[in-house]
Amino acid sequence: MKIAVIYESIYGNTAAVARAVAEGLRALGEVDVRAVGDESVEADLLVVGAPTHAHGLTSSMTRKAIEAAAEEAEAKGDPLDYQPTAGMRKFLEHLHEVDGTAAACFDTRFDKSRILTGSAAKTMARKLGHRGYWIVADPESFFVLDTEGPLKEGELERASRWGASLGTAAGVSR
Known about the structure:
- By secondary structure, the protein is an alpha/beta fold.
- Helices cover 37% and strands 20% of the residues.
- It has six helices and six strands; from the N terminus they run E-H-E-E-H-H-E-H-H-E-E-H.
- Strands 1, 2, 3, 4, 5 and 6 form a six-stranded parallel β-sheet that branches.
- Helix 1 (13-25) packs across helix 6.
- It is globular, with a radius of gyration of 16 Å.
């Protein structure tokens, strides 16, 4: 099975979760884990992850604010420990229509009610469903303690277990 884990990350938390999810998936097949880019993706299972920002995926406006904050930190001599990746929204908009390719979505957000925080994972699942993807598991959230992190204790282990569970959800075993 060919698996792709594609992520957007601002402070490195979502990237860490993506690597943990990929580790859980490795027993199922070849896993390509990488930051979102312009290239196309061919996989039997597509897993996408992004931080929840302003109740959903980052937008061009929120991306500009993130980039400005990174530039300001750099100018003050206190650069960010992690450079933000490209945004997930554009990647999803450019995906080709498919006929039932398996997919799953995760996000990072505060550990509060989804009504209060929103969910990038839920937004991504909706967008993938409109493109013909079969969403094999409910959108999953992994929690951060503050805007820049760190992740809540135990989240990387939970992400690895969630990744491993996706094979069962997609009806795949090795």
